[in-house]
Amino acid sequence: MKQVKEEGIFFAGADLIIKNNGNGNVGVFAKAYMDVPVQEAYITVYVDRWDEDADRWRQVKYYDAEFYEKDYPDGIIEPSIDIEFKNLEKRLLLSSKGSFCSGV
Fold first, then answer.
1. 103 bridge partner residues
2. Taking the model in full, what pTM does it have?
């Protein structure tokens, strides 16, 4: 069995904001904050809608972003995305969630 050694804590925090941009368009901003530069980072954001019939949230859209050290010579410290999901059904109750991963 392979042993995994903890290298340290490098996530300082993260922000996720959902915005109603009007006309069925929804903006999502996501940003991670690192304590030290990392070699790679991944952010996935999801937009869910409330399904009254099933009494639960259902995913309607998602977006994946990948950040690699080769593109950031000073290291990745604050990766972020600002995306707009277009033409969603109007008058829905929407929610957003995010997943943040990183490697040193």
1. 40
2. 0.82
